[in-house]
Every structure is written in C-alpha cells, then in structure tokens.
Amino acid sequence: MYPLDEAARAIVPNLRGAIDIPNCGHWTQQEHPELVNTALLEFLKGL
C-alpha cells in the first residue's frame, strides 16, 4: 500500500489509513473529485 504508512503511524498514532491515487499530483481534489468525495464520505461514516 502506501510506502510511508508505517513511518506515518509512528508519528500519527490515530492515523486511520492512507489512500494512494495513481497518476495524481498535488491537486487531488481537482484531479479526482469523485475519489476524494467517496473517501471523505467513507471516513465520515466511520466516525
């Protein structure tokens, strides 16, 4: 999965996960809005 997942968990103890979106730059919400919305809704359902 995400190559820095274990390193991130070491400094972010409540990290719930990471999502890798292939072929995406720094403007994730503009490049893949449907994937961002789906991920946000799934996260919110888990709260």
TrEMBL record:
It comes from the Bacteria. This is Alpha/beta hydrolase. It comes from Kribbella yunnanensis.
